[in-house]
Amino acid sequence: MTSLSPSASVLPLPSARAQVIAGIALALLMIATRGQHFASVDALPSASWAVFFLAGALLRPMWTLPAFFLLSSLLDFSSLANGTITDWCLSPAYWALAFAYAALWLGGHVYRGLHRDHWRTVPRLALVLVVTASTAYLLSKGGFYFFSGRYPEPTLSGFLARVPHYYPRALGTLAGYVGAAFILRASIRGLFMRTASRSGTPA
């Protein structure tokens, strides 16, 4: 988000090639950080929420939403088959993740129309992230708590007691990955514009 005209938006990505590169990068990020499998990096927190948000913000095709959900499910079930994770999270409530990921994708899609190439857009991004993360948390964690069968007597007070422990971490991880992605994108765009300016071609 470089200091350009506040009215200049850079979303969605301008070219099919950039779309493909961004899609591959997001898929690799999910593979590297989700669960415990042959390609995961244990030191990194899961970027799955950020991947769905960024897919909504940066990628044009709507089919990227089910495609990334399919990828996340394949990673989870392959980890289960390999014995690197247990079936604790793979309950009937697992499919609540589909609604949570859809909310994240929609949040990114909404932010696409709000983004401007200026630092003044950061509060907009922060607001969208909070609303989106809160919705995704209620759908995913709430769905698991109430419908997974792992908690014999789930109550609203019991769920609310868990929020201060888990929600800040989920929001922080989402914001960290999304912020890093937009900083990287702004840096690449700034480099491109400087190169184009020196060569005399339009950016």
Element layout with pairings:
Blueprint: H1 16-33, H2 48-58, H3 64-82, H4 96-114, H5 122-147, H6 156-199
Helix pairs in contact: 1-2, 1-3, 2-3, 2-4, 2-6, 4-5, 5-6
What does this structure look like?
The chain is an all-alpha fold and 203 residues long. 67% of the residues lie in helices and 0% in strands. Helix 1 packs antiparallel against helix 2 (48-58), helix 2 (48-58) packs across helix 6 (156-199) and helix 4 (96-114) runs antiparallel to helix 5. The protein has one domain: Arp2/3 complex 21 kDa subunit ARPC3. The chain has helices at residues 16-33, 48-58, 64-82, 96-114, 122-147, 156-199. The chain has six helices and no strands.
CATH topological fold name: Arp2/3 complex 21 kDa subunit ARPC3
The assigned CATH architecture is: Orthogonal Bundle
Number of helices: 6
- Could you say which overall geometry the principal axes of the C-alpha atoms support? globular
String of helices and strands: HHHHHH
Overall pLDDT level: 84
SS strand fraction: under 5%
Unreliable runs, pLDDT <50, ≥5 residues?
1-10
For the record, the count of structural domains works out to 1
Using the coordinates above, name the CATH class. Mainly Alpha
Query: Over all CA atoms, what is the radius of gyration?
Result: 19 Å
Helix content: 55-70%
The main β sheet shows up as: none
Q: Give a count of the beta strands, DSSP E runs of length 2 or more.
A: 0
